[in-house]
Design a protein that fits this description.
The chain is of the alpha/beta class. The protein contains 12 helices and 14 strands. Strands 5-4-3-2-1-7-6 form a 7-stranded parallel sheet. A 4-stranded antiparallel sheet has the order 8-9-14-11. Strands 10-13-12 form a 3-stranded antiparallel sheet, with no helix packed on it. The two termini are 32 Å apart.
């Protein structure tokens, strides 16, 4: 049963936090699997786990400064280490030197700031025996594994009640039947009737979760693109491949075009500290959002099909992404034109043009073509894009094709055949 998720559909931007024992090893969240580290070796890491720099209030403050509206926290990744107090295992943060319930701290900090809160929890478990491999190989081990999986989930949603999202992950090695996913969701909903699920226990869930790409599902359903800020989910000391603030803004625009969300991931280091580049990038995007939120939040669909026109009203632009709201078309000029420029293919009459937070812009319209004289007003400001607000007499649409004019007969739009092009 789909739950009422109005808040989720309007959230647009959230903060994903990957933190755990793997953060201390500083080689990514899959280090136990990729290096075949034994459970005993992980116990040794856990014995010295005391991340004094972990500050839930600072993480929640960063989400607020970044313009985010919800936060998702890894309560347990595939390595089986719980970042909460549990009666089911001694492999948890409250039974280490830290002696802290990091999940409770994050929930309290998020609630204090009005952020919605989601709990990530892996179904897979590399640590406990029988593990997921044993569950595949042996029927008796499977029953024990599933009983323990259900016990973990039941304890989690009972201990932290209410929360807004249960973010399943680690669905290897079973399908929905193997995970007993219908029963799993029913158990959770019996405890928290208003909670939302993602689809990573092999059922569709309440929303889709495209990973490392921002793509609107077809047919449309509520969705959230989860994307790393660099190349790893968990902290990796050698990963400095940070996305720029402009990269994030373009992903936010793409999420807005398809009325979805961007869940941007950060990975605190082994001491729990947020890396300085993370803070710089997230705060820069947040400052831009504060001044330009009208073109990101509460937007309408602006989608493009490269093969047929259909009911799509969108188009692409070399100067940056469009978004749309009501009768207003926004151009987020991530690559601003050096001089005057034009847009063509518009279905509407332009009434006024301004730069958001800036001057009016002169324009001249001839049919479906509009020329703009911006006199440098679209130049990047401190490396971040300006936004052109184009007020129209009706909800705007742009229709262009791969030809210099629109054919009067049936025709493809941009691609005549199926192509391996990411639009």
């Amino acid at each position: 049963m789909m739950m009422k998720n109005d808040w989720f559909e309007e959230a647009r931007y959230g903060l994903f936090v990957h933190f755990g024992l793997y953060s201390k090893l500083a080689r990514g969240e899959w280090v136990m699997n990729k290096e075949e580290l034994s459970p005993d070796s992980l116990r040794q890491v856990a014995a010295d786990f005391s991340p004094h720099g972990f500050d839930a209030d600072a993480i929640a403050d960063l989400a607020v400064k970044g313009g985010m509206r919800y936060l998702v926290f890894t309560t347990m990744h595939h390595d089986g280490f719980r970042l909460y107090d549990t009666e089911l295992s001694d492999f948890c943060s409250t039974k280490t030197k830290a002696g802290r319930d990091f999940t409770a701290e994050i929930i309290a900090a998020a609630r204090k700031r009005g952020l919605k809160i989601g709990l990530y929890h892996s179904l897979n478990n590399w640590f406990d025996e029988p593990d997921s491999v044993a569950a595949v190989e042996d029927a008796g081990s499977y029953e024990i594994f599933m009983e323990r999986t259900f016990a973990r989930i039941r304890e989690l949603v009972t201990r932290y009640n209410p929360v807004d999202v249960l973010w399943y992950d680690g669905w290897w090695p079973f399908d929905a039947k193997g995970w007993r996913s219908e029963q799993m969701n029913a158990v959770v909903r019996s405890i928290q009737p208003g909670i939302l699920f993602n689809g990573r226990n092999c059922l569709p869930g309440d929303f889709a979760t495209p990973e490392q790409h921002v793509s609107t599902p077809q047919p449309w359903r509520p969705w959230e693109a989860c994307v790393t800020l660099n190349d790893n989910w968990g902290f990796h000391a050698g990963d400095a491949n940070w996305k720029s603030p402009n990269d994030i803004i373009k992903m936010l625009a793409k999420a807005s075009q398809g009325r979805g969300n961007l869940l941007l991931n950060i990975g605190p280091d082994g001491e729990g500290r947020i890396p300085l580049p993370t803070i710089r990038i997230v705060e820069a995007v947040g400052g831009w959002l504060e001044a330009h939120q009208e073109c990101i939040y509460g937007t309408d669909f602006w989608t493009l099909d490269p093969y047929v026109r259909g009911e799509h009203r969108g188009d692409w632009c070399p100067h940056g992404p469009f978004t749309v709201k009501g009768n207003i078309l926004y151009l987020i000029a991530t690559s601003p034109p050096a001089g005057n420029f034009a847009l063509s293919g518009l279905n509407c009459e332009v009434r006024e043009v301004t730069v958001v937070g800036g001057p009016d812009v002169k324009f001249r319209q001839t049919g479906a073509r509009v020329e703009f004289e911006h006199d440098g007003a679209l130049a990047l400001k401190e490396g971040l894009p300006r936004v052109l607000r184009i007020g129209c007499d009706r909800p705007p649409a742009i229709y262009k094709t791969g030809g210099m004019r629109v054919p009067k007969s049936d025709h493809p739009r941009y691609d005549p055949v199926s192509a391996d092009i990411l639009w």
